[in-house]
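for the recovery benchmark. tokens below, seq after
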């Protein structure tokens, strides 16, 4: 039996603290193999003034896994990169043990070769790690380590095999206090081909659905065992064209669910019956993968819906009392000065919602935007894309675009650019008992934001 220490290295709270679900998935898989597992969360440790070296020294692990969820915050206006901090964690582990260090997580999987060296780890696992990491632990324990340093999670779990996770009680309590909710997956994979997105690369291009009863069982477990009062689905997109999401809603209605929940939705053709079913099932808030603000720029990012779908979806859900947030990117493929102005005008037509804006598209390896950037000479194919590189249409000026969006959003508490501009002001409400995403409080805000910060930046 091996002693396995797993460390979630995420320390960002934007847009709200998120339970490290991937780490717990791997922890449960390793524990099922008979190994002793300890989970360590840097976000929680910071609040308790603990030290990584102390944790390692006290647990004396045989294997240490570092979960790297994100590489940076993908925000060109206020970029925050995390790779140096990951290297610091690795050095702290090295100072306390000779146990091999294994990297994993979505962020690592995008930059496996570069990060293996930068973070100074022994092994890395690309893709789903439940099976691959468990096998690596077995090999290391038996004294027969693999020759290759980078391993691939080539055995994706079927939906039926993605079981309900018994969250770590200490972590669950922390995130309920800090973020007000717990999260879960109803499926893996993504069938859409958005030009900037890595989900199909990480989880596959087809959906692997969990049985609806299993999903609702997990929600009830989170409610009864951990006291969850709000649930967030972490699916790439919750509403699939096959209608699996509606089956989950039907099961929630059948069981008279009273726990509010939120999910990431794609604007598409909804009817009032769909919205009614979802609200009766407990849907409280939707984060929309809108991404662009005109038909031309939606097509440029390979989105398979139109701006009319966005407006109709927002109107239907807001009219049913569901809180709405849209995430949009200016400056991507086919953006022009004219589409910027058209897009800002289109956003003005969205009522009862929060809009988060970004400028420039983070170039991530293997995506269509990466291929386009190489074709247009924005980057070379050999460029590591670390530090972050952003794609901008050649038909817009970066600084002018930044100032235009800043000016248009100025004075509106429900229009956020750069990301996090208003969120710091309302985080305290989670500690006062608010449950759910922080941004929905902005819809209740009155008055205009202060101008002092704007003036200082200009």
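predicted aa per position
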């Amino acid at each position: 039996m091996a002693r396995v220490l797993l460390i979630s290295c995420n320390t960002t709270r934007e847009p709200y603290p998120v339970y490290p679900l991937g780490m717990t998935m791997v922890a449960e898989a390793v524990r099922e193999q008979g190994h002793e597992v300890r989970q360590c969360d840097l976000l929680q440790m910071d609040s308790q003034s603990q030290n990584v070296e102390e944790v390692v020294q006290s647990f004396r692990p045989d294997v240490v896994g570092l979960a790297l969820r994100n590489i940076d915050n993908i925000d060109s206006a206020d970029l925050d990169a995390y790779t140096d901090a990951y290297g610091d964690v690795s050095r702290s582990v090295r100072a306390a043990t000779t146990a091999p260090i294994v990297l994993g997580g979505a962020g690592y999987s995008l930059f496996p070769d570069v990060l293996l060296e930068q973070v100074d780890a022994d092994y890395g696992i690309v893709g789903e790690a439940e099976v691959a990491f468990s096998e690596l632990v077995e090999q290391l324990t038996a004294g027969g380590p693999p020759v290759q340093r980078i391993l691939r999670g080539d055995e994706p779990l079927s939906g039926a095999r993605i079981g309900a996770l018994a969250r770590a009680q200490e972590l669950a309590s922390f995130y309920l206090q800090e973020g007000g909710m717990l999260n879960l997956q109803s499926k893996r994979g993504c069938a859409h081909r958005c030009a900037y997105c890595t989900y199909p690369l990480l989880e596959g291009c087809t959906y692997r659905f969990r049985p609806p009863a299993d999903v609702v069982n997990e929600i009830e477990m989170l409610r009864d065992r951990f006291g969850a009062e709000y649930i967030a689905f972490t699916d790439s997109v919750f509403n699939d064209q096959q209608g699996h999401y509606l089956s989950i809603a039907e099961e929630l209605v059948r069981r008279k669910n009273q726990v509010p929940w939120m999910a990431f939705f794609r604007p598409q053709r909804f009817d009032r019956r769909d919205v009614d079913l979802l609200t009766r099932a407990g849907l409280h808030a939707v984060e929309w993968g809108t991404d662009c603000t005109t038909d031309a720029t939606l097509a440029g990012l390979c989105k398979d819906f139109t701006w009319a779908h966005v407006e109709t979806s927002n109107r239907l859900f807001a009219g049913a009392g569901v809180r709405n947030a849209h995430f949009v990117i200016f400056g991507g493929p086919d953006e022009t000065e004219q589409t910027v102005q058209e897009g800002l005008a289109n956003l003005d037509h969205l009522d009862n919602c929060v809009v988060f804006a970004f400028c420039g598209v983070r170039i991530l390896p293997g995506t269509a935007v990466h291929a386009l950037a190489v074709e247009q000479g924005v980057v070379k194919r050999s460029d590591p894309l670390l530090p972050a590189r952003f794609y901008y249409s050649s038909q817009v000026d970066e600084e002018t675009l930044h100032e235009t969006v800043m000016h248009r959003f100025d004075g509106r508490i429900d229009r956020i650019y750069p990301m996090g501009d208003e969120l710091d002001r309302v985080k305290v409400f989670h500690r006062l008992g608010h449950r759910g995403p922080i941004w929905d409080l902005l819809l209740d805000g009155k008055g205009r934001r202060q101008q002092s910060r704007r003036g200082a930046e200009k």
